[in-house]
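During the practical work, I worked with a single protein chain and the tokens that describe its fold, as given directly below.
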Amino acid sequence: MALTAQEVMQRWDFQRDCLIEMLHDVQSEYHYLPREVVEGLSHGLKVSVPQILEVATFYNAFSLTPKGQAKFNLVICNGTLCYARQAPLIIEQFESELGLKVGGMTPDGIFGLEESACLGVCGLAPVMIINGEEVVGRISQDRIPKLISELRGRAEREKHKPRQED
């Protein structure tokens, strides 16, 4: 059963100042922010839909459209320092190596590719984050094939790993 706006608001005690946390909960559940849930939050929190959308579109963590869930979602920083350190060329190479464009997903569902404004780890520029958790810094074009190969290997190993019971 999918998470409802009411359940999200209850989880956060209907506190308007917890809107970002609520949006994260919805994003985690649906992998995007469904319009009906946004409207439910709007009604329950007494915040206009445009105000919620303003918050949601400010942060790259939120999507207003459904996207396929790739095994590895690669988010490449294209902020000022990363841009100066060849992020556009790195993005182009990932697109070429994976056979997709930013915003797309490989047909096998292993890779999704996104670009972002500053990811906040400028000391590692150029940088990418895998699945919102794993930071890979100082990316160079010659490292990209190896990174892709390592991730494909991880996906293959995980596919054959025995499932653990909860």
Summary: The helical segments are 5-11, 19-30, 35-45, 49-58, 80-84, 87-98, 144-160. The first strand starts at residue 72 and ends at 77. The chain has a mean pLDDT of 89. The chain has seven helices and four strands.
